[in-house]
Each structure stands twice: as structure tokens, then as C-alpha cells.
Specification:
eight-stranded parallel β-barrel; 13 helices; 2 domains; 302 residues; 8 strands; alpha/beta; 42% helix; TIM Barrel
Length: 302
């Protein structure tokens, strides 16, 4: 076993909680020193693969670890990098940036239609997202319009999933977009309309990409297994969530994916200010009661 492989296996033992998905056991690490990596950070890169990180995320961590070593003057195997500057992130004021939203968005209910939006707004849920799936433009407009109307007179903040143009025209509070939407979404148009923007992320590379857009908040997921959406990435788990929350602490953060009442307290201890739920409300026998219980758990940790 070579020196970088020894370092990799030590790191895997020290940071076993970061394991998610299938470990990669290919021989890419043998090429790393030829690609300009020193022994220590080639070991970091191999460790990240063994911990199941996708290659672009493993590269992000290894680069950050190298910057961390340079900054503190030593290679520390115990210190997982969470300082924004080591990832090339500026935490100072940015211009342009999207309008801010509350740092603690509280319980964030993702709902299938306007009726559910109205119901949860009346129940006092702080943050709502309309995730209405349809190919019919008229149906989409009608549902967004009804959802916007449903939150009037309440304290709820309403984000519209995907349908940014209709969200602007109907006066929603904000828009939520996935990574697949970022290439085509007209960020400048959304920003100038004074809508808040939330972006989904599923690992380091996507967090860095989303951060560059200076959004109003970042969603981090999926934390636990979920059957609601086919995910390209494995469930991230609590240890990764803690590292993500520390790194992106300059943003309002929303944890999402398979979170229910039993998992809520552990998720809130990660440092996020909000938790998004779907089935924990829409699949509950008594949704209003479930929402109140979830809110109490969140508010007890803020």
C-alpha cells in the first residue's frame, strides 16, 4: 500500500460518518500524483471516493483540503474543511444578489396544490412551496393564482416551484428551482422582479454552483431516503449535512428529503434554519396537528 492509500484509509476511519452511497474502489488514485496532487491530498481525494462522494464533489473537497493545509500551515487529517474561503467562497456583501428572505424559514411545507397551500397557511406554517405538476399552462396559472390568493392575510411566505414566469406575473414571494433549471432560468429577470430565489443542491459541486448565483436560500438534500423523486445522488446523511451547513452558513439553509417528526430534532442540530417536509404533512392523518408538532420541534431548536 502506498503513502496516499495509507492516508486515504486513515481518513475514511476518522470521517466514517461522511459515508453515503457506494464506495468507489477503482484505481484512479494511482493517477492523482501525476495530475499534480501531492501525496497527502491525493490521499484525501481517494478517501472521498471511498466515502462515496461523486467525483466532482471529491475534487471539491480535495482542493479545499489543500487550501486549508496552506492556510493553517499543516495537513490535518482530523479537520474536515468547512471554511468558505477554502472552497473559494466569498461571504461578504454581493452585488447583484437576490432579495433576502428570513434566515430561519422554519417549517417549510412542500405542497401539491393551492388547496393544500391555503390549508397550511391557515394552520400557521411559516413557509410554503407550491409544487404543482402539470403540462397545461392554463392549469398552472390558475393554481399559482389561487395559491397566491390563499396566503393573503397570513404570515406565510409562498415559493413557486419551477414556474418562474407565472410566479412573477401573479405576485408570489419567491421561486424555487432545481439544478436542472439553472442553465435556462433567467436569473436577472427573476431578480429584477424582486422575487426571492431558492436553489436545490445535492453535494459540494452543486452548492458552489448555486452559491455563485447569490440566491436567497439553499436547499440541502436529500438527507434521508425518499420515494417522492428519483435522486441521482445517495441520501447525504446527518454528518454530511452538518458539514454542508457549516460551509454554507452565510446563507439561509433548508434541509430536505425524508425528514419526519422522529428525525426533526437531529436535523435541526446540524445548523440549518429550516426543514422542508412533504409526506410528513400531506400523508398525515391529521395534517394540521402534524404541522403544529413539527413547528414546535423546530422552534425548540432555534
Amino acid at each position: 500500500m502506498n503513502a496516499s492509500a495509507d492516508i486515504a484509509h486513515t481518513l475514511v476511519g476518522l470521517h466514517a460518518g461522511m459515508l453515503a452511497g457506494e464506495p468507489r474502489t477503482d484505481k484512479l488514485a494511482a493517477q492523482d500524483t501525476l495530475d499534480g496532487w501531492d501525496t497527502e491530498h491525493a490521499g484525501v481525494l481517494q478517501a472521498c471516493r471511498l466515502l462515496g462522494f461523486l467525483e466532482h464533489d471529491a475534487q471539491c473537497v480535495a482542493q479545499a483540503w489543500r487550501r486549508q493545509s496552506q492556510r493553517i500551515g499543516q495537513f490535518s487529517m482530523a479537520t474536515w474543511p468547512t471554511d468558505p474561503q477554502d472552497f473559494g467562497i466569498s461571504t461578504g456583501p454581493r452585488s447583484p444578489s437576490f432579495a433576502p428572505c428570513p434566515r430561519h424559514l422554519g417549517l417549510y411545507a412542500v405542497l401539491p396544490d393551492a388547496q393544500w397551500v391555503g390549508r397550511m397557511a391557515q394552520a400557521g406554517v411559516k413557509t410554503l412551496q407550491l409544487r404543482f405538476k402539470s403540462e397545461d399552462p392554463d392549469a398552472i396559472r390558475q393554481e399559482v393564482r389561487l395559491a397566491v390568493q390563499a396566503v393573503r392575510g397570513t404570515d406565510a411566505l409562498l415559493f413557486i416551484n419551477d414556474h418562474w414566469q407565472v410566479a412573477i406575473e401573479e405576485g408570489a414571494y419567491g421561486v424555487h428551482l432545481g439544478q436542472e433549471d439553472m442553465d435556462d432560468a433567467p436569473f436577472e429577470t427573476i431578480r429584477l422582479a424582486d422575487l426571492r430565489l431558492g436553489l436545490s443542491t445535492h453535494g459540494y459541486a452543486e452548492m458552489l454552483r448555486a452559491d455563485a448565483a447569490s440566491p436567497s436560500y439553499l436547499a440541502l438534500g436529500a438527507i434521508f431516503p425518499t420515494t417522492l423523486k428519483r435522486m441521482a445522488t445517495a441520501p447525504q446523511g446527518l454528518e454530511r449535512l452538518k458539514a454542508y451547513a457549516a460551509l454554507m452558513r452565510h446563507h439561509p439553509l433548508v434541509a430536505i428529503g425524508g425528514i419526519d417528526e422522529a428525525r426533526m430534532s437531529a436535523v435541526m442540530q446540524s445548523g440549518v434554519g429550516s426543514v422542508a417536509v412533504v409526506r410528513a404533512i400531506t400523508g398525515a392523518s391529521h395534517p394540521e396537528q402534524a404541522a403544529r408538532a413539527l413547528q414546535q420541534l423546530i422552534e425548540g431548536r432555534l
